[in-house]
Amino acid sequence: MRRPALYSSSNRPAQGAGDAGAQATGQPTTESLPIPPSRFSRLAKRLARHQLYLLWSVVGLLALLLAISFASPLRNPVRKLTQEHINAAVLKTLETTILPSPGTHAYDTIIPSVVRIVGLGKDKDGKEEGERSVGTGVVIVDKGIILTNLHVVQGAQTIKVTFADGLESTASITGVQPENDLAVLQAHKIPDDLIAATMRSTAELAPGDQVMAVGYPFGIGPSASAGVISGLKRNFRSPEGKQMMSNLIQFDAAANPGNSGGPLVTMDGEVIGIVTAIFNPNQQRTFVGIGFAVPIENAASAAGMPPF
What we know:
The termini are far apart. The chain has a domain at 108-302: Thrombin, subunit H. It has helices spanning 17-25, 39-75, 83-96, 102-110, 150-153, 296-302; strands at 114-122, 129-141, 145-149, 158-162, 168-177, 182-187, 210-215, 223-237, 244-251, 263-265, 271-278, 291-295. It is of the alpha+beta class.
C-alpha cells in the first residue's frame, strides 16, 4: 500500500533531497543557496523596520513625559509653611475683612435669649386686663425657664412673655428670691429653636470691664446700652426704704424702667447679672449714671441651679 506524501512547512528542500537529486541526475552535489528575496518581501521588511522605529519613538516620548512629570516638583518645590506665612495670612485677612464690633457681637449673642415681659391685671371695675408692668427677662434653660425681677411680675394676674422670634406665651411663677428681687418663670409655650443664655461667673470681674444691658426700657426694644462695671459688692436700698440689697454689681450702661429683669452681659454675650435697680436721688424714674445688677450666681440659685 502506498504511503501518503509528507509535506514540510518550510519552503526549503529537506536535508539530503538535493544530494539525492544530484545523484539521480548524475550531477555533483552542492550546498543549497538562499532564494533571493523578491521586491515585495523587501518592501515588507522595510515597513516592519519603520513600524519598529515608530514604536520606539512613542515609547521614548512617553518616557520623556513621565520624567518631566516627576521632575516638576523638583524644579518647583512646594514652600514649607512657616509661622511667618501664617502671620502674614492672618494680617492680610484682618486688613481686608471688616469684623463686627465687640458690642455687636455681645448683642447678637444674647438677643435670642431675651424676652419681653408684661404683667396684666384687671382695671378698677374688674372687667378688662391691661398692662400694669413692663419688664425684661432672660432664658436660662431652653425648656422655657426665665429669670426676671420679682417686682415686674408681682401682683400680676396674667404674665405674658414675648420671645425674640415674636412668639407670645403666658407664663407662671415657679420660684422667687425676694431678698434679691428675683423671680423664676416657666413659659407655657416656647419656640422650637429656643436658645438659653450662657452664664459666666463674676469671680474675675473688675471695675472697668465692658458690659452691656439689653432689655425693653419704657417698653421700647429690644434695646442695648453699653458701659463699664463701676464697682462690685455694692449695697442699695429701695426708694421706699423697705428693702436693702447687697453684693450688687454697679454699672454705668444706661438702664431705665423696663430694663428691670434683663441681662447684664460681657462683650462675649455671657450673662453676669440681672439688672434690678437704678439709683436716682431726685426720685425720678430716669437713669443718672448708676445702675445695679444681682450677680448671676445669686440669680441662678433662685432657679435651683448649682453655683459656678
